[in-house]
Amino acid sequence: MTGRFENKVALIAGGAHAVEGELMGFGGVAAWEIVRGGGKLVIADIDDVSGEQSVEQMRSAGFEALYIHADVTSEADWVAAVELATSTHGHLDIMVMVAGAPDRRETIESASVDDWKRVMDVTNLGMFLGVRTVAPAMRDAGGGSIVLISSMMAKIAGSYANAYAASRAGMTQFARSAAVQLGPDNIRVNTVLPGWTVTPFTAPIFDDETIEQLSERVPLGRLATSREIAAGILFLASDESSYVTGSELLMDGGVTSWLGPQ
Length: 262
Description:
The chain has a single domain, classed as Rossmann fold (3-Layer(aba) Sandwich), CATH 3.40.50. Helix content is 41%, strand content 15%. It is built from 7 helices and 7 strands; from the N terminus they run βαβαβαβαβαβααβ.
């Protein structure tokens, strides 16, 4: 949709995997659609090789994109990313946090405290620092949209991934709180809850057999594509959702509505 993000400046945290021709995550697909829609972009990530390659591709295609190394658990890194966006483009309108940490297949009793803290820090501390840091810049711009990428695991439980599920559920509640606090500043905060999708994040554990097994548990009969999930992110990031805040966009193919094969 040409002009959808005209004059918008977006910061995507965790969107380094945006190299066309390779497997892209939600953030990578969203990044391309934002610049193609007339927006200006800053990608912040810890994967410097992928991040630099991604923005170089975008610049070669005539778009305005920058990359900065950023650990979402570092307040200083968030400050640097926001300063790069505002000093270069004058304002900041959109922040998408895609960054996350995989949870090992451990039970509550077998999981280590360090693993629990790692998942919680990236997801929950990261979102807190991100929202806190971008809010003043968005307030100065007259408003903005914050999209936090949660998971359908915020709604259901499994026999493992306890930290992951808890952190994603915490994200949805935090988004509601942030939506209430920042609403008077015309800053919207929403979450997207993707279902099973093959991305650079999940590819190491989603082999063909696993994909087939998971597909049988999805009412739509298949896993999502990154482009499908990115469509939800882009809706919430754009002015098309100007009256949507504090919401959860569940994009799971019906998994959380179904008891499973009977």
